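Example for tutorial group B:
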């Protein structure tokens, strides 16, 4: 897993899972704390995430809200969009461009 960027936009790639969660949490919390306005997470290069990784995203979302910021997900891969819909988190998280429910792959 890698995260590149600054306090306004981060590119997240690789796997966001239990092994990378602690490092990701540290980077995301620092980005939230050090900036202002929207924090955009570009997920186009993200291969996968597990429940722990999704928890890191939700923790950053809550922290951003407490800091008067908004966490925005950009370029969410279709498989991860399905998970957001299945967990109904697409209703809570800000997703740039929204989710095209009709275009999601079927399980």
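The residue assignment follows.
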């Amino acid at each position: 897993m890698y995260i590149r960027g600054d306090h306004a936009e981060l590119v997240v790639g690789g796997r966001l899972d239990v092994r990378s969660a602690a490092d990701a949490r540290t980077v995301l919390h620092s980005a939230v704390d050090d900036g202002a306005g929207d924090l955009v997470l570009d997920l186009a290069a993200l291969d996968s995430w597990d429940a722990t990784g999704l928890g890191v995203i939700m923790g950053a979302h809550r922290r951003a809200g407490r800091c008067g910021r908004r966490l925005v997900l950009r370029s969410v891969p279709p498989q991860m969009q399905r998970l957001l819909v299945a967990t109904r988190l697409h209703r809570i998280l800000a997703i740039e461009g929204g989710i095209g429910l009709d275009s999601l792959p079927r399980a």
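The first strand starts at residue 2 and ends at 5. Compare this with the pattern of hydrophobic and polar residues in the output above.
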